[in-house]
Amino acid sequence: MLPPGGAADVRALRRDGSTITLVKDAPEPTPRPGEALVRPLRFAVSSMDVEIARGLAAYEGVLGQEFVGVVERIEPAGGGADERAASLKGARVVGSPWCACGECHDCRRGLSGHCKHATMLGVRGRDGCFADAFVIPARNLVAVPEQVDDDRAVFAWLLAGAIHTAQQVRIEGKPYITVLGDGRLGLLTAQIMARLNASVRVVGLHEDKLARCEKWRLKHRLVRDVGERADQDIVVDCTGTRDGFELAMRYVRPKGVILMNSRLSHLNAAGAPERPLDLRPIVEHEITVSGSRGGSVAEALGFLRSDVVDVVSLITRRMRLDDGPEAVRAAEQPEQICVLVDP
Ligand SMILES: [Zn+2]
After folding, report:
1. Distance from first CA to last CA of the chain, Å, rounded?
2. Across-strand partners of 217?
3. Where are the domains positioned within the chain?
4. Which chain residues have CB less than 5 Å from ligand 1, an ion?
5. Cα 139 to middle of ligand 1, angstroms
6. What is the CATH number assigned to the segment(s) 9-159+295-342?
7. Complex-level ipTM beyond the 0.90 threshold
8. For residue range 134-186, what is the model confidence (pLDDT) as tens digits?
């Protein structure tokens, strides 16, 4: 019920200290000028959510970066951007969780993805989307075309990252590309890479996950069946693990390229051996290592609308917000690829 003069309470999945709890009486967030209040329709659990839940990243607040939702209201900022923002009211939207300041030196020269003052939904300095309502800068939002349903739209941010990675690849001849990792990022990146004029294979640890590649006519191999021949022109490491990166250094040819589109997040994971990462191969084999992060959700929506990428096959489990911390724990299970959550 709506209390007099105030907004209704909302549910929110939070991390406080070392615990994740579903708070049932959080105050509805209030958008600041230029921000939108969004009512989510569906979420996806990201690897960052899992990391934060496991205590591998310092963050306290509401979890969640990936969503599709409906804009309930927008707080005008007073300026030219208000007109576009107002047009989003009532629209079904997706958005980038990365919230750049828009004013600093980096932002002004087109490097907003590297803004030092940025906040990020559910990661840094800003509550995430795993709630009945959340706020986000209106300029981060893009309206979802009618043809793209919620199950597809919710992949926009992840897909944006995969597309951005593929854009870093310079194709000469018909290069051999290995995509390392059979999680949601690996399987999505591989589909995008396969659109390039290249010979692409996916290498992973799970036969059942890799089996999806059949449908996409993508070559796939288990790690244990792949020889370490240092013959790949490009290796895209989507594992985010030390083991994955070391494997990438052994797969790539001399003077080849390793693209990293996930952080080496598990380097200091509890239980991981404390040995230092041996980077000598980078020098000895003159390997280029290139990072990639973020991307354009508008561009991702274009891919989803033209149905050139299969995201639905990546959905392995559906949960509800009321499942609370279990929703994030489900995504940690090795058999899962992508866990979607309904409010
Ligand atoms: Zn900035």
Report:
1. 18
2. none
3. 9-159+295-342, 169-291
4. 100-101, 104, 107, 115, 117
5. 14
6. 3.90.180.10
7. yes
8. 999 999 999 999 999 999 999 999 999 999 999 998 888 999 999 999 999 99
